[in-house]
Design a protein that fits this description.
232 residues
């Protein structure tokens, strides 16, 4: 059902402090008060565009990963601005929302540097928002004009890192979903879902599925994605 108990301690020791080396010349001031703790994997929920963000992405997978492996995680996201140097303290970031958006040049530049210096991004269309998906596709093309996102086949290691996943079923049963990946130097550094990996029903607050057709086994997929990001 799941793998790696021994790897977790090694992974956490690598990502406990400032997990990524910010590119030379990146002197943007930090804009949040998050303080990553030694030996604990921290995950960011991005603030982007014109202060766009979403709380409707369940962090339950962070606790579940810790239960299934030796990887120690902070069980909550930290809100981090996409154009902040503080982003480099987080090995893993979630970007979600609904409706159209546009990134600033500073945000595009920082996202490029983050993903080419060891960071990992999961982009998920909240409520299966078509406008959000179109905006993300347009923006990631501006960030990496020479790289195409490709469909990730179920044989990819992402689907076998902790859980063995052989299907991405949608909540409403309208066929199967798929994920797309952006590969840099032989490694997937960003994963995109137009259907949604938000696990909205477990996000708390006033979140709901909003008529979208999210991926049913999103939590297990999110566990696998974080495990993959930490071990590749």
């Amino acid at each position: 059902m799941y793998r790696f108990f021994a790897l977790g301690l090694v992974v956490c020791s690598c990502f406990g402090l400032a997990v990524l080396a910010a590119p030379a010349g990146n002197n943007k001031s930090a804009t949040t008060s998050a303080e990553p703790r030694n030996g604990v994997v921290q995950c960011a929920n991005l603030i982007y565009g014109n202060n766009k963000t979403s709380v409707c992405y369940s962090p339950k997978f962070l606790e579940q990963l810790q239960q299934e492996t030796n990887i120690v995680t902070n069980h909550e996201f930290s809100p981090i601005r996409l154009d902040s140097a503080e982003l480099y303290q987080f090995p893993y970031a979630v970007m979600t929302g609904e409706g159209a958006f546009t990134l600033t040049k500073a945000q595009r530049d920082n996202l490029h540097d983050y993903l080419t210096n060891g960071g990992f991004l999961v982009a998920s269309a909240g409520c299966s928002s078509g406008e959000w998906s179109e905006s993300f596709r347009a923006e990631i093309k501006k960030v990496f004009p020479d790289v195409e996102m490709v469909k990730l086949e179920l044989s990819h290691p992402i689907f076998h890192s902790v859980y063995e996943i052989d299907r991405l079923a949608k909540n409403k049963g309208h066929g199967d979903a798929h994920l797309e990946g952006l590969e840099i130097d032989g490694k997937i550094v960003a994963v995109f879902s137009s259907d949604g990996l938000n696990d909205t029903a477990n996000a708390g607050g006033k979140c709901c599925c909003c008529g979208g057709d999210e991926i049913r086994n999103a939590r297990q997929i999110n566990v696998n994605l974080l495990a993959y990001a930490l071990t590749h």
